[in-house]
Every structure is written in C-alpha cells, then in structure tokens.
Amino acid sequence: MGQSGGPTAVINQSLAGVVEGLQTGLVASGKVKKIFGMRHGVRGIAKDGGDLVDLSHLPAATIEAVAQTPSAALGSTRDKPDDAYCAQILEGCRQNEIRYFFYIGGNDSADTCRIVSEKAAEAGYEMRCFHVPKTIDNDLKENDHTPGFASAARFVTLAHMGDALDNASLGGIKINVVMGRNAGFLTAAASLARRARETDKDAAKRPAPHLVYVPEVPFVMDHFLHDVDSVYTKLGRCQVAVSEGIRDANGEEIGPQLMRSGEVDAHGNVQLSGSGALGDGLADAVKKALTPAGGKAPRVRADTFGYLQRCWPVTSPVDAREARGVGRHAAALAAEGDTGASITIERTSNVPGEYRSAFGRAELSAVARYARHMPEDFSDNGNNISASFYDYCMPLVGDLPEFGTL
Amino acid sequence: MGQSGGPTAVINQSLAGVVEGLQTGLVASGKVKKIFGMRHGVRGIAKDGGDLVDLSHLPAATIEAVAQTPSAALGSTRDKPDDAYCAQILEGCRQNEIRYFFYIGGNDSADTCRIVSEKAAEAGYEMRCFHVPKTIDNDLKENDHTPGFASAARFVTLAHMGDALDNASLGGIKINVVMGRNAGFLTAAASLARRARETDKDAAKRPAPHLVYVPEVPFVMDHFLHDVDSVYTKLGRCQVAVSEGIRDANGEEIGPQLMRSGEVDAHGNVQLSGSGALGDGLADAVKKALTPAGGKAPRVRADTFGYLQRCWPVTSPVDAREARGVGRHAAALAAEGDTGASITIERTSNVPGEYRSAFGRAELSAVARYARHMPEDFSDNGNNISASFYDYCMPLVGDLPEFGTL
Q1: Residues of A marked as catalytic
Q2: Residue B335: phi, psi to the nearest 5?
Q3: What class, spelled out in words, does domain B153-309+377-397 have in CATH?
C-alpha cells in the first residue's frame, strides 16, 4: 500500500483502515503473508531499488497513533506514473510476490491502479488493485464527497468564523485565498461560517463572508471590485473568500494575469501555488479601485491559508471515521474476491442530526483522471454559495463553536 | 471599558472578567450605577458624539458566550491618543459621569490610561484608570507573559506540528512566516512543535522546525541560505520559522530589502504586514541559491500565517483563564480603592504539571509605551530557540496532540 499526492489530515486513517482490514481479512485467512508499505508512494516500489516497510505486525496502539496523525506517514509523491513507470511498479510487485495493491490518493492514483491492473492482466500476473479515495479538493467522480475534504473544510470554516470577527473589530476589506485550482468545494466551505442556511441577495445583508468566488464561476474583475465596494460602502467592512484557481470567462487564471498586468504591485514569480501572489494582487487591485482621488486608502488585507488547510492536526470526526472506513472497505472487498475497484462514499441520509454514509465501489476507469466540479446549484448569483451547499457540507464538518455578541 | 489594538482569541475573556468583577464589586456595593462599553475603543467616547453600549445588565449566559468568542466584541481601534485626544476622552467621561476607566490592550493602551489619569488629576476630576493587558506579541514590561499570547502560540505550535509532517511527506524546503514585528516570542513557539526540550547544535539533527529566526537576532542572508542548504542537503527537507520582523545587523527589516533588491521576484508593495511578501521573497532567494547550475530547482514553499494566528476560535485553556482573571483583578483593585494601575501576570510555579500564576499591579507609567523583547537566553546559535524558552512556553499552550510514526 502507499499514499500519493497532497497529504490530508486523515490520509493515515485510511492507511490504518487498510492495515486493520487486511489483518482481520486476508492475513487472518492466510491468503496474505505480509503487508508492505511503499515509502513515498509508488517510488517505494519502482525507483532506486524500492523502499518498502514491513507493516505486517503493527500493534493496534501504533495503528491508532498513526491514524490520529496528519499527513502521509509513509511519505508521499507527486509522480504520475505513465505506462513505463507502471511496468516498473508491476516488476517490483512480482519481485516481492505482491498480489494486492492499495493506493490512497486522488484521480491520478486511481489511474495508476488502472494502468497497473491492465499491465498485470496483459502479463498474466494475478494482481488486484484498489484505489482508496483521498483529496481535500473533493473532486473525485462517483463520490458524494472524499476523505480529507471535510477536515480541510472544517479548517476553512473555523478560520472564516474567527477572521470575520477580526474584520468586524477593526473594519476594512479582508480577502482570504483558499486552496482549489479547479474545484470550489473547499472555498465554498467558507460560507458555513455564516451559520445560516439562507442568505440575502444583497451581499451587505449576508453574514460574513459577504462574497465567495470559486473557479467554476467566471471571475470578472470589474464585478468583483463593484461587489467589494458595495459591501464596504454599506458596512465599513467586507470579508471575501476566493479560490486560488479563480479564472476569467476564457478559462485563464486570474493570479498570473494580475502578475503580468503590472497594474498592481504583485509578485513576478510564476509559482502561484504556495505563494501569496493572488491574495496580495487582489488586495492591491481593491486598494487602488477604492481609494478616492486625494483620499485615504481603505484598510485592505489578504491571507493565503496555504498548507495549514490540509495538515491541521484537529480533524472533522465524520471525516476521520469515513477515511478509516474506506480503507477497511478496500481490504474487505479484496477479501471478498473483488478483482479491483475504487472505493466510493455515498450519502444515505442527510436528515439533520442523522447524517449517514455508506461505502461502495466503482470501476477504476470511472474515477481515474477525470475531476469533478461543483454542481451548478451550489453557486449563487456569481459571488455567493447556495443553501443547497450548506445542506451538503454542514453535516461533514462537525460541531462548530457558538459565538456571543454585545 | 474598551478594547484596543489587534484583537486576540481571548480579549473578550478580559471584557467578561471586568464586567463580572464590577457586578460583584463596585456595582454590588452601590458605588457604580452603570457599566458602559466603548465601541471601537476610545473612539466610542471621544469621537463623533461617542458610541457607548450599556453593559450594566448583561445576563451571565451572555457574558459567558461573549467570553468564548474570539476578537473584540466591542470593536477595536488603532488610534493612539495624544494629549488632545485624551482631553476629549476625559470630556466624554465627565459628560457621562464616568469615574472608572478600564482599557484592554497593549502598551499604547496603558499609555492612554496614563495620560487620561494625568489629565483628570490636573482638572481635579476624580477618575481611576486601569490597564488590562492584552497582546499576542507578549511584549509588555512587568509581565511574565500577556493574555492573548498563549492562544496564538498554541496556533503556531499546532500549525508547525502538522506542517512538519506535510514537509516530511513530500520533501523540500518550507518557510513559515509568523507575526511579530519586534518581539520573537510567537515565532519561538514554533519550536514547541518539536516536543523536545533539548535540541542538537546541528540543525539537521533537530526535530522540525529545523531553523527559527526572530527579530532579536540579526538576520544574515548568507548564513540563512547556508543553514537551509545544510539541512536540505542532509535530509531532503527543511522546515523554517521566521518572524515577519526579522532585520539585519543595522536594524533594517529584511522584507523591504528583498522587495527593493530586485534579485528576487517579490512584491513591490510597501505594505508588508498582511501580505505574503517576506515569505515569497525568502522562498525565491532559497530557490535561486540552491538550484545547481543547469539543475533542477528544489521544491520551496512559503506560508504566511497571517490573521488566523490571533483569531483562531480554539484557545489555550491557561490563556482563557488568565485573560478572564486579569479583567476580574482590575475590577477588584478598583473596588479596593486602587487609584489606577496596569494589571500584571506573575508566574508563581513552573514545576511541570503544576504551573501557577498570580495577578498583580504595576504603575501605568512602567508599562506604557515601552516594549519588551525576548530574553537573550531564549535564543540559541543564531538560528534556534533554547530549552529555557521551551520550559517557559510549554505550560502556557495547553495539551498538544501525540503523533505516531511508522
């Protein structure tokens, strides 16, 4: 088994789930003798002689401690194996007599499972590959939601709850940049900070965040500046949540455009991810647009939440439980003789207070490579998130603190 | 009473403490008839006709709910009143027959209390001013530590704990910029993420964060790049914590120098606070220095923690308790006939597991204006934090999660 891509706060829950599921399933029945972990994903079996760690005899206390630990305990990788790379993976499996392959990751990891499965079949080597879902972006097809998302969403919600009060206490315009190159789910979670299902069409009458921009809705700079101006003029403050991947009607990302334009004093570097460039560029644009001729510039600040979103050590309880569950389900399917699948999460009850989910399976090819976007009805009015997203996301993030006011 | 300066996660605990202390003290004894809150600090009594809110009859449940809420419930201000402004404050107090003045804030707030006290004495108006300490920077004189610091320190510690594992899983160099223009206490809290009292002189043998730079120790770019290179070469990864206010041997801040130099692709804007400029500039410098001629650049990322540090809704229990306590103590001193003071925190036991503190008083003039810096023995080796800081800070931040490894 291995872990791949950007880590999450609960990716080790899935690792623990696979190990537990194997211990009570294929290992207990004698069909599997050893459990190996690949260090740094498929690199651990395909590169430089491999780097496998024996997980066969992990004590329950160690499994539980690792499960509670954020980020990938086996290490991760950004490698996206092609055919040749997958042939090396298969060769590594043959050498170690590996017949089951569990890969915890996003759609690239599902694709790796798919290619390795096909290569094994071509070579007549019996091998069963299972993709265990993981991504804070929440962008896997065939899933209601994905492990890792809810904990990151909880961070984004809590951050906006506290930051809204900070913004209210000193006034001005605050822009928060949230992870998400293509899917806006995580940025949309900022809207849960309102603790209100329905919000006003007039952004100034909504609880903060007043404005939310996601990659699925084309970003128009003039509309954005108008929206911010309108809220700030009425309230003396404005909190904005923005996806790092917002783009214009042509699909071109806003961040690089701000940097190139020279109209704002923003970064010149090309590396956008993991930099404060988009937030600072938007802040500069707002300051420029909202400063009256000869007048005083409004207070404008930007925070880019960065990597804390995916590795904050306090998780959503639902997320932790489901991440464990998809790992166990993968091992259970393997024990039942499934020849390879991607594990899925289905929501079976969304009645308030009675949220329930179930694990299922999809073909690897149905999940591999393709990314899911936010459904259209989750966006609202070009600068807001709908009540249907609230209903979707609130059961996932866990209890939120209650605030008092004077 | 009012709240001033950058809010903290526990500044409302102090507000609640003052209200409770008055209710059971001066109000119960009949010496005070009404409790007013100033909206947005002294602006609420001195500007535009004032904006006072009656807090005389707050139910206990409301007080408790507000106490648990981050940021300044009355609103805050960045105004630093001079003599003329303080005369307006005094005039507002006279008009409302106010005889006690409680101001929750940093050293500027203590100075406001001092000036208002002096103006009242000059005018023969009996008036008692109490400064209630608050600052995440931990830079007030006469105090072991200040309310607000420990909760922010807890955030910084947890963030580095999770981020260290994120950095380990994918490798590369990670730079985290922490608040603190002049005092390094908050950045030093990153070192608690190691969960180890003693650390190696060799940065590569320390648990992450491997390197910590504070404003009190002159920052030498060549040494920094050498430090990072040395750790990265040995481990394939390096986690760095940096204060936003790091400066060179001449006392000049590094951030603006990076922006002006043109050697790195950083921001051109002057606004450093609340921007990602320093982190991105340092990341660019590291990338440039560590990329071999014709070779591949290392993975370098920077996060600027920003405002989340001071408004994260989950606090340190010690901090919440002490912030409440300094508010109550101020009201108690007033009831005892104290003619005006700044409340202080003294540590009375630092035995592990038996941390205790007591509240005291200092003259307003002893706290006003002057900022405290980190004691020299908290820094170590130019790029590290000492075991004595560990002993100092660990009792304040509360329980930390235990992590597992494979």
Answers
A1: 137
A2: -65, -30
A3: alpha beta
Rounded CA separation B344/A61 (Å): 44
Residue reference for tokens 């042509």: A250
The interface predicted TM-score of the complex, written ipTM, equals 0.96
Domain spans in chain A, listed from the N-terminal domain onward: 2-149+312-369, 157-309+377-397
Beta bridge partners of B240: B175, B211
Question: Is CATH 3.40.50.460 correct for A157-309+377-397?
Answer: yes
Minimal C-alpha gap between B123 and chain A (Å)? 32
The pLDDT > 90 percentage for chain A reads 91
Of A6, A174, A265, the CB nearest to B267: A265
Q: Tell me the chain A residues in contact with residue B305 when contact means C-beta distances shorter than 8 Å.
A: 308
- Please answer yes or no on whether B405 and A73 come within 8 Å at the CB atom: yes
Architecture of domain A2-149+312-369: 3-Layer(aba) Sandwich (3.40)
B244 appears as a binding residue in the annotation: yes
Closest Cα in chain B, distance from residue A56 (Å): 12
Q: How confident is the model at residue B258 (pLDDT cuts 50, 70, 90)?
A: confident
Task: Mark yes or no for CB contact B163/A314 under 8 Å.
Answer: no
Tokens of A118: 């096909």
Cis check for the bond before A218: say yes or no (omega within 30 of 0): no
Residue B136, marked binder: yes
- Please report which confidence band the pLDDT of residue A352 belongs to, taking 50, 70 and 90 as the band edges: confident
Which one, of A180, A170, A246, lies nearest residue A211 by Cα? A246
3-state secondary structure of B237: strand
CA atoms within 13 A on the CB side of A39: 12
Q: Mean pLDDT score of chain A, rounded to an integer?
A: 94
Distance (Å) of CA A224 to CA A33, A186, A212, B138, B360: 59, 20, 10, 38, 51
Residue B271 has pLDDT above 80, yes or no: no
Question: What is the distance in angstroms between the Cα of B195 and the nearest Cα belonging to chain A?
Answer: 15
Q: Is the pLDDT of residue B265 over 50?
A: no
pLDDT digits (tens, 9 = 90+) for A258-290: 875 543 433 443 455 557 889 989 999 999 999
User: Which residues on chain A are in Cβ contact (under 8 Å) with B403?
Assistant: 65, 68-69, 313
Q: Which chain B residues have a beta carbon less than 8 Å from that of A65?
A: 402-404
